[in-house]
Amino acid sequence: MTIRYDRPVSRSAFLAWRLGVFGAAVLAIVVLAHRFGPLTTPDFVALSALAAVPAALAVPFALIGLGRLWQVGALGGVAAGWALFYATLPLGLTGWAAWRYLDRPPIYDVSSDLVDPPQWLREPTARQQWLDRPPVTRESRDLQARAYPGFTGRRYEGALDRVYEAVRKVADANGLMVIAERGQEFAVPEFQPLSPAAPEAADNPGFDPNAAPQGVPVPLPRPEPESPATTLPPEPIGTVRLQAVTRTFALGLPFDVVIRLREEVETTLVDLRVASRYGPHDLGIGTEIAEHFLHALDAELLGIAGD
């Protein structure tokens, strides 16, 4: 007589698998829609937090399933293991954001020059929805100084045009898209190569003095005077400002950046200002973007960096 042993099935383990897969799938869709689609950052934050709810529920059910596997050999051990794996994705993102929120100062705008921060060429505007944030104050600058004492500008012993060229190159290489700039005329090299002169008629054997003239300019009507538009004041001599936008690689969080170059005697001073577009807290990402850019600029201008 053959005895057949029927293993019990842990329903908790399979329920945990469903909850874990659901939470991970919601998070993946939300991240893709925010990184490459129309989903705004406030909606991304809210939906990411909601995705962590089923993931958090999957953890105790998965532990119960593993306990049943250990005690009575119930089916569902593999499902419980996968449930824990899927649950770590939304829970890990939420935990990382919560740790950054508590560990970093509550600021969203950082600048390498705390006394005279670079001003925006185009004031960043965005619909904050439920992520209200206070204005930048002297207290927020003091918080930055205490939290990031090593975040300062750079002084390079080089001409403004050379540093400007390096800044544009590093910005392109690091995903900073320049949307506005002023004062770039000060970054034109002092000596420009002259264009070759037109050949003299005497040196041209095919020149016909009786031929009809070529390229005669056609007179155009004088344009009507335009009404004066509201413009920003001109940049001080030797000052260049560039404004750019960028996104973080994985999550696509948007940031606005302004870079200021000032020529002083025989050196060029570079300052950065980085602000998150949404929310009252940048989770410390703004300073990381600025320091990464400055380190890349140091490498590009290796040999002429000063204190």
Per DSSP E runs of 2 or more residues, the count of β-strands stands at 6
Distance between the termini: 89 Å
Gross morphology is elongated
The percent range for strand residues is: 5-15%
Roughly how many Å is the radius of gyration? Answer: 30 Å
* Total of helices: 6
> What is the CATH architecture assignment of the largest domain?
2-Layer Sandwich
What is the string of helix and strand elements? Answer: HHHEHEHEEEEH
Secondary structure category: alpha+beta
What is the assembly state of the chains in this entry?
Answer: single chain
Transmembrane segments: 12-32, 44-66, 78-99
Keywords: Membrane, Transmembrane, Transmembrane helix
Protein name: DUF1499 domain-containing protein
Organism: Ciceribacter selenitireducens ATCC BAA-1503
Report on this model:
The protein is of the alpha+beta class and 307 residues long. The chain has helices at 11-36, 41-72, 77-103, 138-147, 160-173, 285-300; strands at 109-111, 154-156, 177-182, 239-247, 254-264, 267-276. Strands 1, 2, 3, 4, 5 and 6 form a six-stranded antiparallel sheet that branches. It is elongated and about 110 Å long. It starts with 10 loop residues before the first helix and ends in a 7-residue tail after the last helix. Residues 191-195, 197-202 and 226-230 have low confidence and may be disordered.
Keywords, please?
single chain; alpha+beta; TATA-Binding Protein; 307 residues; six-stranded antiparallel β-sheet; DUF1499; transmembrane helix
Brief digest:
The protein is an alpha+beta fold and 307 residues long.
